[in-house]
Amino acid sequence: MSWNNKISYSNVTSNRIVQAGETTNGIMLGLLRTAPDFNIADHIGTYVAANGSAYANRQRFYRSQIGQSTNPVYSNPLWTIYEQMAPSEVNRFIVNPELTINAAEWLRFIVRGGIDFYQDYRDEFYPIGSSGSARSNGLWTKTGITSKEINFDGLAIITHDLTEDIMFSATLGVNYNDRNRFSNTNTLAPFAVDSRLMTSDLNPDKNATSWSTTETHIRSNRGYSVLTFGLLDQLFLTASLTAEAASTIKGTFFYPSVDVAWQFTDLLNLPALSFGKLRFAWGKVGIQPAPYKFSTLATTGFGAFGGSFMVDSEKGNSNLKPEIKTEWEAGTNMRFFNDRVDLGVTYYQNQTKDILFAVKTNPSSGYTFNYKNAAVIENKGFEIDLSGKVIDKHNLQLSLLANFNNNKNLVVDIAGAETVDIGGTSKAVKGYPMSSFYLPGSLRDENNNFVLTANGFPSVRHKIPCTGRS
Questions:
Q1: Which of 75, 302, 362, 373 is the most buried (most CB within 10 A)?
Q2: Contact (CB, 8 A) for 266 and 234
Q3: Kind of pairing, strands 314-315 and 369-373?
Q4: How far apart are CA 340 and CA 94, in angstroms?
Q5: Does 36 have pLDDT greater than 60?
Q6: What kind and span of H or E run contains 60?
Q7: How many CB atoms lie within 10 A of CB 293?
Q8: Is residue 259 scored above 90 in pLDDT?
Q9: Neighbours of 193 (CB within 10 A)
Q10: pLDDT, position 380
Q11: SS3 of 78, please?
């Protein structure tokens, strides 16, 4: 019997540079929207209007080159770096105890636990003069996040040689997981004074302050078994079955898998071949729905009129199922010249059914979206990995690696619809790859020339096609 326990604590502080998505306050978007011959230095200064009025701390940007605008649309990257602030502090504890009991030569028990607890405090501070209508008059958000995850595993491992040529092993296990996350965000906007101090005195008016709270609690458990047989140290067969249940969904779901591998090195006995294996695998995995989607929730609104509770715009669904991905793959791994050259080739196909997302509904139903299992997506392709040790000396090693992959993606079905918006100009379009551009354009004839209107302008194409992938 043995016992070990790992305990870790970390404290991480930082001042993050804002660059998340398509934000006008980020570095990259502002940089890309700046003319290459414009000097972004002197990003802040005092603007003097024609009437002689002076305005301090104005942002200077390509579209507001002397600071004449209170909203420069896109931030000067130096303003993002030196004027905006996003400090954060994370305190994290991780505890992982493990008990191993060797009951017999062929039987071993393992009990493993884990607690991951952290507190994350973060701010985002946009002083007066930042980009965007929501931030140009100043905005400060202060968020506190508390997260706790408890995990438990119990395993029984059996290893036994049935004969001299047949090896057998089995793993039986159970898992329990509990995740709780609480987030509280306070927002202050606009600022009554132009200051870089993070204090509630930036605007003492209570109407300038708002807050939001989000709490998520997910609990899941599963049982699993893995059986492995080996024959003559060449042929290996592994089969597994997982049963899983979770608080985000009703019922228990089963996910089987099997894989076969044949090591043919000894059989061929080729001098240049150090190792060779053929392999095939098939299996299913599931993805749980998002929490609290099985019923329609209450929300709040009409804050300007004192506030009220109302039915959420997204309709709940008590008949949700997990997304199921079924995949098979076949391939080979070979090593040559005393393991100096390594080659791997894999071909795969997979299909994901019952993909979960919020589908737009007719507003007359009383809802804007309905969260449901509503799509089928396929992927297929192959991968080639090649690596070689060019130099392998005691004090000098040099390796070259190359990888090639070719994946073809296809949207097979989206709840009977032809297209579904997934953000911006990208759509899920039936019969096309995921995230296809779906844009209008001009009508062309059989010679690819523009079809012009009576006024000489290109005619609009009424049937909008896919024009590529994002």
A1: 75
A2: yes
A3: parallel
A4: 40
A5: yes
A6: none
A7: 21
A8: yes
A9: 12
A10: 96
A11: helix
